[in-house]
Amino acid sequence: MNDKGNNVSVLAGNQLDQLKNFTVVVADTGDFESIKEYEPRDATTNPSLIYQAVQMDEYEHLLEKAIADNTNSGKIGDELIDKIIDHLLILFGKEILKIIPGRVSTEVDARLSFDTDKTIKKAKELIDLYERNEISRDRVLIKVASTWEGIQAAKQLEKEGIHCNLTLLFSLPQAISCAEANITLISPFVGRIYDWYKSKTGDEYVGENDPGVQSVGSIYKYYKKFGYKTEVMGASFRNTGQIIELAGCDLLTISPNLLSELSKSDVKIEKKLYPELAENDNSITKISLDEKTFRWMLNEDAMGTEKLSEGIRKFAADIEKLEDIIENQLLDK
Q1: Which helix (H) or strand (E) holds 107?
Q2: Contacts of 271 (CB under 8 A, 6+ apart)
Q3: Which of 12, 199, 310, 328 is most buried as measured by Cβ atoms within 10 A of its Cβ?
Q4: Active-site choice (83, 143, 225, 307)
Q5: What pLDDT is recorded for position 118?
């Protein structure tokens, strides 16, 4: 199939099948049945998705197993709860990897987002748990927030063969720093960028005018222009229009409800992103970033600053809710 132009399209199949010809489709869920139904290559999870999943009857056994396996570990209090959560994450990841051929993303506690050393330590603990469960580290991406500290942690982890997915990414300086650190994959959040601009302006953004779509397109072109190997995975979609505008992005991680919508439509889609877009674009200039420049550029981006802080707070809150569920179950035993 010719990938050289913007007119590349797939002649048959629903939109999900068409999209898979252009882009690696990733399931953004902890729900095994959805993963089975839509047959993505990879899957991503986060604290919010795991918190939602453990409240469903069909996944209660995983939480019970994580608790049972660690009750006699010698840990007590917060250390025991932390150990149970780590095992719960690995149990979800292990079950997901039975379904998909590719990789699962497992997230480090968001409360460690500003601590490089503790992020590295937690990532190694998670990888060790996977390997003790006979899962190769090549099938796991450790998710880390795209703070300066998180990026430095991921840079070290990548050097040690632990592949990372830098999440909560909303701005070009975050993306550039990840590429310079040789991170495996980044997850720019399309929908949350859209949310911010919509709330500020009251406008409904569609198609190529969507600021979230524009952000991912700019990052994609920057990476291709300068030959970075870091993969771009658009995330956090609000509608299928955003997804279709990013057809051709390296990967797209999509929630079950939007996967369902794509699978029910046979409207033709076209490949919108491809490396040749950037080759002759002289408007793209290379930016050098040290820590001070990174912090200043992010500070000057009100949307990026606000959404990064908000995202960390939300993920941390869902971890705390998960801790409460586990604590209550331990008290009942």
Answers
A1: strand 104-107
A2: 3, 6, 8, 9, 22, 247, 248
A3: 310
A4: 143
A5: 98
Question: Is 4 a catalytic site residue?
Answer: no
274-317: per-residue pLDDT in tens?
A: 999 888 889 999 999 999 999 999 999 999 999 999 999 999 99
d(CA 188, CA 35) in angstroms, rounded, equals 22
Show the tokens assigned to 178. Answer: 């990840």
Q: Which fold has domain 15-326?
A: TIM Barrel (3.20.20)
| Beta-ladder partners of 27 | 43, 254
Among 34, 56, 52, smallest CA distance to 43 is for 34
**Number of neighbours of residue 136 by Cβ within 10 angstroms:** 10
Which of 150, 137, 135, 149 lies closest to 96, judged by CA?
135
Q: Which residue has the tokens 């200043």?
A: 296
pLDDT digits (tens, 9 = 90+) for 42-95: 999 888 899 999 999 999 999 999 999 998 888 889 999 999 999 999 999 999
**Residue whose entry in the numeric block shows the structure tokens 């840079």:** 155
**Roughly what angle, to the nearest 10 degrees, separates helices 302-332 and 190-201?**
120
Query: Is pTM beyond 0.90 here?
Result: yes
Residues 74 and 329: their CA atoms lie apart, in Å, by 18
Non-local (6+) Cβ contacts of 180 within 8 A are: 289
